[in-house]
Specification:
The protein is mainly alpha-helical and about 170 residues long. It has six helices and four strands. Helices cover about 35% and strands about 10% of the residues. The strands form two sheets. It has a two-stranded antiparallel sheet with strand order 1-2. A two-stranded antiparallel sheet has the order 3-4. The two termini are about 20 Å apart.
Length: about 170
């Protein structure tokens, strides 16, 4: 199959990372998202909880709405008041947020955060976010490889075939 690497230049249009970073790659966007996951919905709540400047908050909320991560909903009893709610697209960012949080606890803070995010059913902390195979196996970075879409599911041609591994270092 030869060595295949992810395209890294400007022609890497099929990679979602640059697109995701274009929308979310800024500290305040993540902090607003974290606040929304913690139940904040109103402009003034975000403003007070985050200590963010009004103009920056307004700009970031508008951007999150523009990209479909949050939606603006007028309150039924007072249509002049607006709530910001996470959309399905926004809710899908939770694993990325948790992975970044866990990374920060491990390498930046050095200690686990408090409070601890737990499974509601049994009250135990969630597991570290990981990379899982299609069958649920937890994979290490050394068990990953890039493949052309046409080669997905194909086995190596022979035992001596060296498949390309993910270059991370």
């Amino acid at each position: 199959m030869g060595k295949l690497h992810e395209p890294l230049g400007d022609d890497a249009q099929s990679c979602g990372l640059p697109s995701a970073l274009e929308v979310m790659g800024e500290r305040w966007s993540f902090m607003i998202l974290r606040a929304a996951f913690n139940g904040l919905h109103h402009f003034e709540e975000f403003l007070g909880a985050l200590g963010i400047a009004r103009n920056i908050l307004s700009n970031r909320l508008a951007r999150l709405v523009e990209h479909g991560i949050m939606k603006r909903e007028p309150l039924p009893d007072d249509r002049r008041k607006i709530e910001y709610r996470l959309t399905e697209k926004g809710l899908d960012l939770l694993p990325a947020m948790l992975a970044l949080r866990q990374w920060g606890e491990k390498y930046a803070c050095g200690v686990p955060s408090n409070p601890v995010l737990c499974d509601e059913r049994d009250g135990l902390p969630i597991a570290p976010i990981g990379i899982h195979a299609h069958d649920g196996r937890l994979l290490s970075v050394w068990e990953l490889e890039w493949r052309d879409r046409a080669d997905i599911g194909k086995s190596p041609a022979s035992e001596g075939d060296v498949r390309p591994k993910l270059n991370v270092l």
